[in-house]
Amino acid sequence: MNLFCLCLLLLELLDRVFGYLTVSIEPLPPVVVGDAVTLKCNFKTDGRLREIVWYRVTDGGTIKQKIFTYDAMFSTNYSNMEDYRRREDLVYQSTVRLPEVHISDNGPYECHVGIYDRMTREKVVLASGNIYLNVMSPPTSISVIAADTPAPFSRYQAQNFTLVCIVSGGKPAPTVYFKREGELIEVVAVAEPPSASITGTKNSRPKPLISRDLDDTKMRKSLSLMDFQDRGRPFTENPFKSITHDSGLRASPVTEAISETVISREFPRWVHSSEPTYYFRHNHIPMSDGTVEVRATITWTLIPQIDDNALFSCEVKHLALSMPMQSEVTLAAPKGPKITMTPAKPRVGDTVRIAVHGFQNEVFPEPMFTWTRVGGRLLDGSVEHDGRELVLER
Q1: Which among 251, 213, 216, 215 has a CA at the least distance from the CA of 231?
Q2: How far apart are CA 294 and CA 166, in angstroms?
Q3: Could you give the count of Cα atoms lying within 13 Å of 236 in the half-sphere of its Cβ?
Q4: Alpha helices (H) along 189-241
Q5: From the first residue on, what is the mean pLDDT of each consecutive set of 10 residues in the chain (394 residues)?
């Protein structure tokens, strides 16, 4: 008990000699670029105020840069920043207001308060408080592109395809997701780009139809074939031979005329047991201004008949956005290429240029152009030539 009383007396004696001083800073929620921010430094003391100094802390706390000072001796205040960067206003002796915060303002700040020592005016007693200013920035741009451009897009076979969504200017990193026809796509997250061996449908990879009986665009079933369905499947390539045990069952070619084969001009059909599997991955790239660029990709087995004219969108959610950002593309295979030839009526010895100047529709992704010569090689001896333009010269 005597020891406790001694401690109290010692503290009281110190207060009388040096005075007491406590400093605290009101916490701030995250702010958005462009907002006005007020930094309040609250202090209590029974001593005489000497100065209040605000610091910006950088490089992990190793560097402290003065941003504002209040000198109580002369009742003056001034900014310690250069004129072209001066954006601080003194609201009160210990309160600083930033009218419009930037990304560069993000980081820790300290408020240092000094009072005179009661025993001598040559000494100053200091105390400080700190706060972290978290400045958020909404994304400034969003775009969707094809991973490979020009893309070896085929209208007649399934192949792996990747869309890339690029989101720039956000802090912290935004949440990115894909939609198809306005519906959220269920994805399988992967750390590395999926290989060709695992991209496909969830149960099996798409396979082209082999039997004409499975595709009604290739062949119309005749009435006679439908009659035999209940009694056994006929061998359509040889109607005289039966695969049933009924020796009396014969398919006569003269009793029923088999309709002609109808060739479809549509894309070839594939058998699908389920929806395709979409593989999703993303990475964050820190930028020099403190923001983060996000690159999100989605990879799946593109089926031309199903995915042609399909609308895909990339959407972004961020704490600094009141509503999601969105960018969308429509997959469209090229139709009706517009080809020009110069000169229009070439003569022997002329250099001829044949070029594709567009299509009858908006095409995405940009296609790969390949020229071949029917029945032989090109004039330079090559089998094919890649590019929008083909030049024929001797």
Answers
A1: 251
A2: 6
A3: 17
A4: 223-227
A5: 50 51 88 92 82 87 84 69 46 75 92 80 82 95 90 71 95 96 94 63 42 38 39 41 42 43 45 75 93 96 88 96 94 87 89 89 86 90 90 84
Specify the DSSP class assigned to residue 128.
E
Query: What do you get for the CA distance between the two ends of the chain, in Å?
Result: 112
Tokens of 60: 């992990």
Who contacts 222 (Cβ-Cβ below 8 Å, separation ≥6)?
256, 257, 258, 259
Q: Quick check: 142 and 327 in contact, CB under 8 A?
A: yes
Q: What are the structure tokens assigned to 21, written together?
A: 């001083």
CA 141 to chain centre: 10
Q: How far apart are CA 23 and CA 188, in angstroms?
A: 51
Please tell me whether residue 12 adopts helix, strand or coil conformation.
helix
Question: CA neighbours within 13 Å on the CB side: how many for 239?
Answer: 12
Question: If you compute the radius of gyration of the chain from its CA atoms, what whole number of angstroms results?
Answer: 38
Dist. CA 334–CA 210, nearest whole Å: 26
Question: How far is residue 95's CA from residue 129's CA, in Å, rounded to a whole number?
Answer: 13
What is the Cα–Cα distance from 263 to 288, expressed in whole angstroms? 59
Integer CA distances (angstroms), 87 to 72, 132, 134, 339, in order: 22, 18, 18, 60
Residues 6+ away with beta carbon under 8 Å from 308: 155, 267, 331, 332, 333
